[in-house]
Amino acid sequence: MATQTSKNDTKYIPQFGAFLKAKCPRCRRGNMFANSMYNLTGQNMYQRCPHCGLTFEREPGYFYVAMYVSYAMNVAEMVTITVATIILTGSESPWLYLGLLLGSILVLAPFNLRFSRLILLYWMTPGAKYRPELSGDLPHNHEQHMHQH
Predict the structure, then answer these.
(1) pTM here?
(2) In whole angstroms, how far apart are CA 90 and each of 86, 93, 98, 146?
(3) What's the pLDDT band for 116 if we cut at 50, 70, 90?
(4) pLDDT in tens, 125-145
């Protein structure tokens, strides 16, 4: 037996949990990415939220801004790794630092890609603010309409 939600049914979803799970910033229910962060096929991002229909790429080239966020994340990670290596090993070998930094760049690249886009959409995009009324279950006919686009 299918249940329909009334217009007044809302479901509040905490921001940080939705952010960590890569959910849509507007409804916090739909997935932004079609697959996991670490896989051999790369990360595929949906064009629209499967739940509320929000277009993630707000304009052509929108995610180029995420490169700046990713750069800031990379710098913070490299400084942290360097300081931790100095404290933990006390080594002066440039090869140790080079190996650790290059290895961490490769390992953290998928993390930086995903979370730089999430940061951009969650905290730097005015039109993608949370709307709790979209967090509940949508009526069946609305879901069909959203999947057709």
Answers:
(1) 0.78
(2) 5, 9, 15, 57
(3) very high
(4) 887 888 888 877 765 444 444
